[in-house]
């Protein structure tokens, strides 16, 4: 039986999740040159926001067709509030400070958010189960797609299309592009850069929340540390695609997911590589890919738009 | 150029952050001598009290707490009040070692129960042994801890201060293999482990016995316990044509792994060791876990007459968490320490070399505990070799068969 199509689908699904979170990294970086290390935790709070809606707001036994949109909205609201709050109270006071200062703040914020959920969210000390969509898996030829993944299959392209439309066609989106290219000139041209920065944080958080809901549906459980590793992976995806480039984030995410999956599935079959093929080596191969891309194409796969400034 | 260096710094910081999160420790204090007149003897506890494995760790802590309270109530040792000092190792060897150093440095600590994980025990053994402070683990099952790294060929005890009340994987793995091959009639296994001391060791002893019995290994995989996407592994399992999966590792990974294997279309049972025998496993794996099997040390507590009092007292103790897979063993471990202390301390007088005397006394401790007879062989291993197979039936672990491993 040929398992390649299935493994590719596995990788693309994993990669879509990385991509959704990577968008937040890349957008914030593109506009304020800040690597928001707390972004993984914003993804986590989004998932917990959605769980809150299901577990504590909606009546028991609500159909997922009704619950899911409301959970998504709940998750987005929570994640956006956290992100905007972080921007206002943790990052804005440090604007103009040396780059390292907000970076360290971001790491502190990341730990603080994890511990806050650990300490105050009911039963969050270990994993909490996430509601599932009923119904069997879907088969397309040899390929099986889980019910929980259907959300991801639908949500990731829609999110991307929305983002492309927003950035290219709307006034605010053009303001974002202008700010990314040159904040000072943009300000002189009447762009409210503070507002643009807040919007970048909020948009990134909304995508992270969609990713958080997708993660919960995919794995059936969420926990207070879920954002940490995924955040690092998403950051890697953003760099891989060319940090600052929103399409790059998605492409980088997909490339990373596929690379990890294929490494797990096939590296062990290569002669002399039996020891390096298991899933525990997947991260290593993902980073090998990253290093190779950075060596031969330092601007990332799609290039980094902000680099031509300076 | 500036951007590039920022990314370099960021990557370095990320690596730093990864290490940092692994070694935060939350000490819960609560020591000191508040007893009037008498001597206070502290029994340390080291277990994961937060994180993925906290369900089991808190069960251990509570059970030791119960043993300490009972000993004080019954005035088992004249003039001595026992106190418990629980430390959180978060299932991390580095935290465990820090906790060990802390316990060693406090002179009123005369015995330690713990840890849960074999990998954590590895990092603590030498610290305790150097201080002659006795350590009794209720849960470690890796054979190398007592019988040395070359336990398969030449058994040699490295640490005289280390004991355990749980039986070893040298027995647990083969016991599972005999059940899976002989009783469940599964002939083609896919073996997965998490590369940790416990998981890899267990998977290896299972595989050896399974092959010896005539079974075939359809494939092997190692997973990374930090991630939870096992879809690639699940697809490999499905395409391997295996009729059973053996997993050496713990329930936080085993649950999602079982779920994803079933979701990939492989309707075959997942079998694991004592570290997946926990209600949380079923919660994580969902309905797909029906039919999955686990072996665990000892016999089920609710079927042992010797455990009746323990179960009643635990319930009356008002603990928030279940006693878990090792509650009975933790209780017995604490009692073993209390018994050893009793032999050394008279009239509340603790001799100056109490620690080494207690360690020596531990070798000869023998009493009827909650889990059966508690005594130790020349390696510090329990003489109780009982094991039980459990299966997930209707959303709960049900006993299938109980027995002792013979042969091998």
Automatic annotation (TrEMBL), chain A:
CDD domains: TM_PBP1_LivH_like. It is found in: Cell membrane. The chain crosses the membrane at residues 12-35, 42-58, 64-86, 98-121, 150-168, 196-214, 226-243, 250-268, 280-296. Pfam families: BPD_transp_2. Keywords: Amino-acid transport, Cell inner membrane, Cell membrane, Membrane, Transmembrane, Transmembrane helix, Transport. It is a multi-pass membrane protein. One of its GO terms (cellular component) is plasma membrane. GO terms for molecular function: L-isoleucine transmembrane transporter activity; L-leucine transmembrane transporter activity; L-phenylalanine transmembrane transporter activity; L-valine transmembrane transporter activity. It comes from the Bacteria. One of its GO terms (biological process) is D-alanine transmembrane transport. Belongs to the binding-protein-dependent transport system permease family. LivHM subfamily. PANTHER family: BRANCHED-CHAIN AMINO ACID TRANSPORT SYSTEM PERMEASE PROTEIN LIVH, HIGH-AFFINITY BRANCHED-CHAIN AMINO ACID TRANSPORT SYSTEM PERMEASE PROTEIN LIVH. This is ABC transporter permease. It comes from Streptomyces roseochromogenus subsp. oscitans DS 12.976. The lineage of its organism: Bacteria, Bacillati, Actinomycetota, Actinomycetes, Kitasatosporales.
UniProtKB/TrEMBL annotation, chain B:
SUPFAM superfamilies: Periplasmic binding protein-like I. Transmembrane segments: none annotated. Keywords: Signal. It holds the Pfam family Peripla_BP_6. Residues 1-22 form the signal peptide. It comes from the Bacteria. Residues 40-395 form the Leucine-binding protein domain. The keyword Signal applies. The keyword Signal applies. Belongs to the leucine-binding protein family. This is Branched-chain amino acid ABC transporter substrate-binding protein. The lineage of its organism: Bacteria, Bacillati, Actinomycetota, Actinomycetes, Kitasatosporales.
